[in-house]
Amino acid sequence: MKARAIRIIGIDPGLRRTGWGVVESDGVRLSYVGSGLITSQADADLAYRLRELFEGIAGVIASFKPHEAAIEETFVNDNARATLKLGQARGMALLAPAMGGLVVAEYPPNLIKKSVTGAGHAEKRQIVAMIGFLLPRARVESADEADALAIAICHANHRGARVRLKEIAGNRQ
Q1: CATH code, domain with 148
Q2: Residue 1 lies in a domain
Q3: Most buried in the list 27, 33, 93, 100, measured by CB within 10 Å?
Q4: Sheet strands (E) in 26-171
Q5: 0.85 exceeded by the pTM?
């Protein structure tokens, strides 16, 4: 019996550019569905930039109808303002799929890189190259798109373990 394919959207949040990538996984094979960028107007007020991101992500979800979403966890850098703005963009990336009723998973950057390249500290070019290998039909035009597809692939690889852990936790209550 063939496993039901799960459609997954990966989201690489950013205030200027949010990458998105949609894949389907039947547990064995991955298929490319689509990818792209959502941008916000750099000269607009923050609230309106965040709205652009939210509406863009919600639109992609409405168009591609994924079952689950995966998002990269925030890393903290030296610039507190930049980290705060990234966190706000990430909030929109979490809210949009949650509002659509999707399961939302979060993964650290090193796990995403390791899931796709085999190395937790892979460079952007290595991720882009592996996306081309794993999803040959993908026409990725930016590192943000490649990262989003890598996030979706990471979720496809780890979602079974997440489901089993939830089932075990539910049985203990």
Answers
A1: 3.30.420.10
A2: no
A3: 93
A4: 30-39, 68-72, 103-107
A5: yes
